[in-house]
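To illustrate the input format used throughout this study, we show a single complete record. The first block contains the structure-token representation of the backbone; no residue identities are included at this stage. The design step must infer an amino acid for every position from geometry alone.
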């Protein structure tokens, strides 16, 4: 609307000044021709007026009036009509400003345009803008001083109709008005279309952002067309999708974590209640209960410390304390740690450490990686099975493979294997003491070292985890 107002105001200023410019031009022409004739006639009739020869004056004026196409009047120096070619105003006093300017101000000549029938004198053409063509009769008054022996003895006044000139101006005004209306209609249309194109998508986006701020992460905005706004909307949609996923993952994580913590707590509660309500329990059974409670506590604290490790890695709080170390040595140390488990399950380990793979890395964290992978291999492979661990250089990387001939992992589980709390067979894995955090931690630690981890598996054949770590890091 503001736009329309500006267009309207500027257009009417333009129309006004253009019309008055054209009007002034037309009148200037007229003033020049009329003025010249009236002035020369005034010189010719000066001796007649000086002599007060009204008859001769009348004859002169009627013939000149016919040529000029108007009414001629001669006034004396008091403004009284001496001769009127229409013979109507003889003896009356004329007080037009054009007369006054000659008699009072001493001008040689003057010109003015009047609207007949109304009192208002209209000198400025621009003022006519708000009048109506058919209501007004326009007359131009041209005056010249009649001079005899350097004294002004009277005024010669030519009143000629200027209706055609004015109607031209009216026509011009009406055309301008028409153009203005057309422009205004276009301006309104333009505003509407413009606001549809620009404002609508912006409003949609704003609404989207507001509902997102209220916590509705499922918000998506639909923006048609092309260009920047659409790109912005697409970016917004992909952002809200990511936030939604993140939100879901967070909720999932919290519920999983609580669930994992609840299980050992529930077991412990049952065991402790039995101890409380059976005071005369035999000491063998009591020790067994206490041992179970102790195991559950260990389990709880291991879950909590795993969670802490993950959370710290999430907030990028983890600093690697790098040192020069041999990856082959680390694998051998881990083998020692896992020997009791391996022997208990009657499994075989085949080590093939082709290169030492000296690296500059965080030994404790890499040990966690190797331990988790090898522990999984023993834990999930049937008794009597085999685990192969190979280490070799490949280009600028150390490649560690942990392979087993266990049950394998079905293809649908593989994409989730590094997710937190993800276990293929929940019951079996929990029985084996697993919480599904091991591989999530391994994945994060490998990333932290700038490495990569992959898994290949076939059900009934076995599983291979491959870790690639950069050899030399400054
Ligand atoms: N070598 C493997 N063979 C078969 N399944 C495996 C193997 N390694 C891991 N898995 C499956 O992947 C799941 C996730 O392993 P992950 O190490 O993350 O958790 P976990 O061993 O159950 O518990 P945690 O390691 O935290 O004690 C396991 O529960 C198991 O089902
Ligand atoms: Mg594990």
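Output of the design step:
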């Amino acid at each position: 609307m503001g736009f329309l107002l500006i267009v309207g105001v500027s257009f009417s200023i333009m129309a006004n000044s253009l019309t008055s410019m054209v009007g002034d031009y037309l009148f200037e022409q007229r003033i020049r021709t009329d003025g010249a004739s009236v002035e020369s006639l005034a010189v010719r009739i000066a001796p007649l007026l000086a002599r007060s020869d009204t008859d001769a004056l009348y004859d002169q004026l009627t013939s000149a009036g016919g040529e000029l196409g108007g009414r001629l009047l001669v006034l004396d120096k008091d403004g009284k009509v001496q001769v009127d070619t229409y013979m109507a105003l003889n003896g009356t006093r004329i007080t037009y400003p054009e007369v006054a300017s000659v008699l009072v101000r001493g001008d040689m000549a003057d010109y003015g345009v009047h609207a007949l029938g109304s009192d208002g004198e209209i000198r400025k053409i621009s003022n006519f803008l708000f009048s109506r063509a058919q209501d007004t009769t326009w007359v131009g008054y041209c005056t010249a001083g009649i001079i005899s022996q350097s004294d002004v003895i009277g005024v010669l006044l030519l009143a000629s109709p200027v209706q055609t000139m004015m109607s031209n101006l009216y026509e011009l005004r009406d055309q301008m008005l028409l153009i203005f209306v057309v422009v205004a209609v276009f301006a309104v249309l333009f505003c509407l279309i413009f606001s549809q194109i620009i404002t609508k998508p912006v409003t949609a986006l704003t609404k989207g952002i507001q509902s997102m701020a209220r916590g509705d992460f499922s918000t998506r905005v639909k923006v048609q067309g092309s260009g920047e706004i659409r790109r912005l909307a697409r970016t917004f949609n992909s952002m809200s999708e990511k936030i939604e996923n993140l939100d879901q993952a967070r909720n999932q994580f919290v519920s999983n974590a609580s669930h994992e913590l609840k299980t050992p707590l529930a077991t412990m509660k049952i065991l402790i209640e039995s101890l409380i309500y059976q005071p005369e329990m035999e000491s063998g059974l009591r020790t067994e209960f206490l041992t179970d409670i102790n195991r559950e506590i260990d389990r709880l604290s291991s879950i909590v410390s795993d969670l802490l490790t993950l959370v710290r890695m999430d907030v990028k709080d983890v600093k690697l304390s790098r040192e020069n170390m041999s990856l082959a040595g680390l694998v051998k140390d881990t083998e020692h740690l896992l020997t009791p488990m391996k022997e208990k399950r009657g499994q075989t380990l085949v080590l093939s450490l082709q290169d030492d793979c000296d690296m500059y890395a965080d030994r404790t964290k890499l040990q966690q990686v190797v331990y988790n992978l090898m522990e999984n291999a023993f834990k999930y492979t049937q008794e009597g099975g085999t685990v192969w661990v190979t280490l070799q250089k490949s280009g600028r990387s150390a490649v560690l493979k942990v392979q087993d001939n266990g049950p394998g992992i079905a293809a649908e589980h593989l994409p989730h294997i590094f997710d937190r709390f993800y276990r293929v067979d929940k019951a079996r894995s929990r029985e084996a003491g697993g919480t599904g955090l091991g591989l999530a931690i391994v994945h994060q630690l490998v990333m932290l070292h700038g490495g990569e981890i992959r898994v290949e598996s076939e059900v009934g054949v076995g599983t291979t985890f491959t870790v690639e770590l950069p050899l030399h890091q400054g």
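Structural context for interpreting the output: Residues 163-213 form the longest helix (51 residues). The chain has three domains: 2-186, 228-314, 323-470.
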